[in-house]
Write a structure and sequence with these properties.
heterodimer; A: 364 residues; mainly alpha; two-stranded antiparallel sheet; 14 helices; 2 strands; B: 593 residues; alpha+beta; Penicillin-binding protein 2a (Domain 2); Beta-lactamase; 2 domains; 7-stranded mixed beta sheet; 5-stranded antiparallel beta sheet
């Protein structure tokens, strides 16, 4: 039975994106002018990606989401291909020591972003197909573990730890609600613990980030600089903020003000009221997504809706926790708000799918 | 099978609900953390941020240049060094102050106190002396005192000294406009804020200005005026000479193009040098041409006569009895300077008979006289592009006494600023249009793009073209033999004008002073196709104070030189150009029929 289109997702998303445009301009105008001689440089790029994202949203919204299940294998294969290509010097130039961007002519794209969505589609389809078969260790649980493990491995070589953590958490929660045995999952966690330790503690800068996280004030002018600057941005915002465009932390002090740390700039310029409003919008989106997952009769739709919701929500929580010092620093965009085209496009595409599930996911 | 599926769905729902619950807890936790940062730790973090921000100083970007209509620079910027200290880094404040004092001539105590109070409040940065003599730069550098440094700042400079200063105004230490055009157009002239970071070195002691990272070097916009530097100079020079000759206390000269309202010169005395503003009284800084209303006296008769002709209440040739110099009207005895009997109305104006004009004013009546005075722009701002304009005084007929009608007819009981009066009479000169006076011609950004371009602006039509023509003929008689403005005559041109000699209100009484006058002359030339309208106002000249003897010669000197400078062709006195622009826009002289 066709349901009346629910506008909650679209409206909430658009409010966040519009707010993002304003904050990206505010946070990047000075840097942008300095670097490119045009204070609108980043804003313009983001506006174009927003437009592409809107097209992706509309397309995914009107497309029957079950179609995606049929194309799981090509989508997944394409993602892997891009993840491999990005590691080659030809297509993936190193930026700040990492190869995250796939350069195709004039546009550059982060394959790890769209891979998040690919993993979710794959896993949703697998879980829906297997049903209780997932409880079988070798025939149900292990195959997706291997595939996802490979993907995560590719991404960690880039390296893009934020995306790896997101994929791991999203996949984990999906498996959990999909009926995987807790004992199997605990085993994976136990087995991967030494690997995680190796990746964190053996890589100098990650180790330092971890230590900084435990005590950021130990070296506020050195390793603790970024997080301490972020604290100061929030703290000087107070209840109502210093006013749009009036923040000073973005000028010299807080690195990545328009990408990873845009939330701190919002805190400085819009105050507690501003960040609280943003959090409420994200919570609304999360609860709405979960409700869609519950109401959908079709298992694939249910898992897909849940996975997409978790993809957004987990990134939101991680980004905010990093900015507020509740988690150690890792580069991760704040969905819809941060500057970054791949992230915006992927998230809007995901929202389009969610909207499509809400529209006709009541089963046949 | 179906029930198993249902059971699975039920378990799925429970798990999702559980996760939703966890998400709410997670978001609440995040919110609590934010509350902690924003509210609980607000003070500590904000003051820490503030302290670090002290390491950045804001410098105003370079101000735009002000130019005259021919591109001559009237106000510009120079880079001048300023000296600062990082008080916490200066080891021996007394010794440092002494050395600096010797090198720069700045007072020892001032330096010492600045460093002392800076150190007390833990400041990283204090200005010691802004804008020091560039010649001292090497000396200060040579001192090599730790914690003392120089930063280049830009300083406003007025190369022409007090030329046009009352109009230009001036900018303050932080390059902010404080008076005049500098204030009015501050948002255009001002450059973007420039941020400069001062960084501690590894030892955390000295502060160095980093090279200008993250600065926005956008300059302010340039403003081109309608003012002509040469005409301004001529006007100021003649005004100075006149004030010296008459020992008057203040005065002003405005030169305007009546066709489009462009101000060509605006000379005001007393004046000041905007490069050294501290040595002047506030009264020297005022632009009296727009701020100070005065009773215009007989110059107002031009407006009364125009109104009466426009309303068909009098013709130029109608004979009016001037009562042989003394006439009781509205309970007040009016006197004329010279006794007259019957005079045609055009001669009433020529000899400036108070009695004759008042009689015509009575014909107009209160309401119509008031309506016309207001229509000519008195009692309202001309909206010239300067700040601080006065609206003058024009009372409404309801509050007039029985004496008011004759008094206002001869220019008493009303007050107008020089700019209001010249704008009003320009409406006669240009064929009936009241034009908005303006002195900014163009605003350009640094790439030379025109941001603003002025255009002639009509406020309203006040009188018909025919009335204006009649008035021009009448006013031309004023400068002919026997008129009050004989001394304004310029050989080769016909001048239309009107003298004014207004008694000033006696201080502390309701009557008029017999001692203090405002002498003025308003005239335009060439009378048949006016290119210039000039108002000369001399406040409180000593001795003979007739407008015809004090102000008219000043008009002549100014006008003659400007006509020559602008190379305005002389007229053939016999066959004067007859130009019709009855229905045309002001300023169009192409409709010769």
């Amino acid at each position: 039975m066709p349901k009346r289109t629910d506008k909650t997702i679209l409206v909430t998303m658009l409010i966040l994106i519009a707010f993002g445009f304003i904050m990206i301009y505010s946070a990047s105008a000075v840097i942008s002018y300095k670097k490119y001689g045009d204070s609108f440089f980043f804003l313009k790029k983001q506006l174009i990606w927003g437009l592409l994202g809107m097209i992706a949203f509309m397309a995914a919204h009107s497309l029957d989401y079950r179609t995606w299940q049929r194309y799981v294998i090509p989508v997944f294969a394409l993602s892997c291909l891009m993840l491999i290509l990005v590691l080659t010097p030809l297509f993936g130039p190193a930026v700040n020591g990492s190869r995250r961007w796939l350069r195709l002519g004039i546009i550059s794209f982060q394959p790890s972003e769209i891979t998040k969505l690919a993993v979710i589609i794959y896993l949703a389809g697998y879980l829906a197909r297997k049903g209780d078969g997932i409880r079988d260790f070798f025939h149900g649980f292990v195959p997706p573990m291997i595939l996802i493990g490979i993907i995560m491995g590719l991404i960690i070589i880039e390296p893009d730890l934020g995306s790896v953590v997101t994929i791991g958490l999203v996949a984990g929660t999906l498996l959990l609600i999909g009926g995987a045995r807790l004992s199997h999952m605990s085993l994976v966690v136990l087995l991967s613990a030494p690997i995680v330790y190796r990746f964190v503690m053996q890589v100098g800068y990650r180790r330092q980030r971890w230590e900084t996280f435990l005590n950021p004030w130990m070296d506020p002018a050195g390793s603790g600089f970024q997080i301490v600057q972020s604290f100061m941005a929030f703290g000087s915002g107070g209840l109502l903020g210093s006013g749009l465009g009036e923040g000073r932390q973005k000028l010299f002090f807080l690195p990545y003000p328009h990408t990873d740390f845009i939330f701190a700039i919002i805190g400085e310029e819009m105050g507690l009221l501003g960040v609280f409003s943003i959090i409420l919008l994200y919570l609304l989106l999360a609860l709405k997504g979960c409700t869609i997952a519950i109401k959908t009769e079709d298992l694939f739709g249910s898992y897909l809706a849940f996975g997409i919701t978790m993809m957004i929500t987990i990134q939101v929580l991680i980004n905010i926790c990093v900015a507020t010092g509740l988690l150690p620093t890792k580069g991760l965009a704040l969905p819809f708000l941060s500057y970054g085209g791949s992230s915006l496009l992927t998230n809007m595409l995901g929202m389009g799918m969610l909207s499509s599930i809400a529209k006709d996911g009541r089963g046949r | 099978m179906l029930s198993r599926r249902k059971d699975k769905k039920r378990r799925l729902k429970i798990k999702i609900y559980l996760i939703m619950f966890l998400l709410i807890i997670g978001f609440t936790g995040v919110f609590m953390r934010l509350f902690n940062l924003h509210v609980v730790k607000n003070q500590a973090l904000a003051s820490r941020a503030e302290k670090q921000h002290q390491k950045t100083i804001i410098l105003e970007g370079e101000r735009g240049t002000i130019l005259d209509r021919n591109g001559k620079i009237l106000a510009a910027n120079l880079d001048v060094p300023s000296m600062y200290a990082s008080p916490v880094s200066v080891k021996d404040q007394a010794a440092a102050s002494k050395k600096i004092s010797l090198a720069t001539g700045t007072e020892y105590n001032i330096l010492k106190n600045k460093m002392k109070s800076g150190k007390k409040s833990g400041k990283n940065f204090v200005w010691l002396k802004r804008r020091i003599d560039p010649a001292k730069v090497e000396e200060v550098k040579g001192l090599g005192i730790e914690g003392i440094g120089l930063i280049m700042e830009s300083q406003r400079f007025y190369p022409k000294g007090n030329l046009l200063s009352n109009v230009l105004g001036f900018a303050g230490l932080d390059n902010n406009g404080l008076e005049g055009l500098e204030l009015r157009y501050d948002k255009y002239l001002r450059g973007d804020k420039r941020w400069q970071v001062l960084e501690k070195d590894a030892l955390g002691k000295t502060i160095f200005p980093k090279d200008r990272k993250y600065t926005t070097p956008q300059r302010g916009k340039d403003i081109a005026l309608t003012i002509d530097e040469v005409i301004q100079y001529i006007s100021e020079r003649e005004l100075d000479l006149a004030l010296e000759r008459t020992s008057a206390k203040s005065g002003s000269i405005i030169v305007m193009d009546p066709r489009n309202g462009e101000i060509l010169a605006m000379a005001v005395r007393p004046t000041f040098d905007p490069n050294h503003t501290d040595s002047y009284q506030p009264s020297d800084l005022r632009n009296r041409a727009i701020t100070d209303p005065y009773e215009p006296g007989s110059t107002l008769k031009t407006l009364v006569a125009s109104a009466a002709i426009e309303e068909g209440l009098v013709t130029p040739d109608e004979l009016i009895y001037c009562e042989n110099g003394s006439f009781n009207i509205g309970g007040r005895v009016l006197h004329d300077h010279e006794k007259h009997g019957l005079l045609p109305f055009k001669d009433v104006i020529k000899v400036s008979s108070n009695i004759g004009t008042a009689k015509v004013g009575m014909r107009l009546g209160e309401e119509r006289l008031y309506k016309y005075i207001r229509a000519f722009g008195l009692g309202e701002k001309t909206d010239i592009d300067l700040s601080g304009e006065s609206i003058g005084i024009v009372r409404e007929p309801g509050s007039w006494t029985v004496k008011s009608l004759p008094s206002i007819s001869i220019g008493q009981e009303v007050a107008a600023t020089p700019i209001q009066l010249i704008t009003a009479v320009a409406a006669i000169a240009n064929g009936g249009w009241l034009m908005r006076p303006h002195l900014v011609d163009e605003i350009r950004d640094q790439e030379g793009n025109i941001v603003f371009k002025s255009a002639p602006e009509v406020i309203r039509r006040v009188v018909s073209f025919d009335t204006a023509r009649e008035m021009i003929k009448i006013l031309t008689r004023v400068t002919e033999r026997g008129g009050t403005g004989e001394k304004a005559v310029i050989s080769g041109y016909s001048v239309a004008g009107k003298t004014g000699t207004a008694q000033k209100k006696a201080a502390g009484s309701r009557g008029y002073s017999a001692e203090y006058f405002v002498s003025s002359f308003i005239g335009f030339v060439p009378s048949q196709d006016p290119r210039l309208i000039i108002l000369v106002v001399i406040d409180e000249p000593e001795g003979v104070s007739w407008g015809g003897s004090i102000a008219a010669p000043v008009f002549k000197n100014v006008a003659e030189e400007i006509l020559n400078y602008l190379a305005i062709p002389q007229e053939n006195r016999e066959g004067i150009l007859m130009v019709s622009r009855e229905n045309g826009q002001p300023g169009s002289i192409n409709e010769i029929r």
